[in-house]
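Q: Could you fold this chain for me?
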Amino acid sequence: MIIKDIEFKLKDGRSALIRSPKDEDIQGMLDYLRISAGETDFILRYPEECSKYTIDGEKVLFDRINESDNEAMLVCLVEGKVAGNCHIIWSNAIKTRHRASVAIALLSEFWNQGIGTRLFQELIHIAENNSNIIQIELEFVEGNSRARALYEKMGFRITGVRPNAIRLKDGTLLNEYSMIREIKR
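A: Sure. Below is the predicted structure, expressed as structure tokens.
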């Protein structure tokens, strides 16, 4: 699914652009995936696991998502750099098409600039414009208080916990929490 370009100002006054991914974003996205994976333990990959992502693979991914009728990816660019992205997907199956799943991540240099809030506003807008979707779902890792605060601000509530879902390299086990946001119609 292609979304219309959205321009907005960051809290520090810089201009940002949210749009569907384009081929010209591929290298920036590959860099973003690797860098963001090393900035926090709350992303579900380590930097070395990003070597599986390739230029050809990203092109196939972008094309598939942009042509899809049940998912969208939004990329946020600041001064031409991929600052973050988010993704929404829902099933076309009758029993589960009422549920959409979302994910989001930002490079740390762009935290506290309003990007996460703006990306979530767009994800919610996409869900609200689909009459089948009545709830949006996501997960976050124990200790990620910044993400939890954003999700709660956007109307999500915790609905469950998956104990010991994440195991860090040092053996630390972390819980994963499920959240939902109901779409009011």
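A (continued): The chain has a mean pLDDT of 96.
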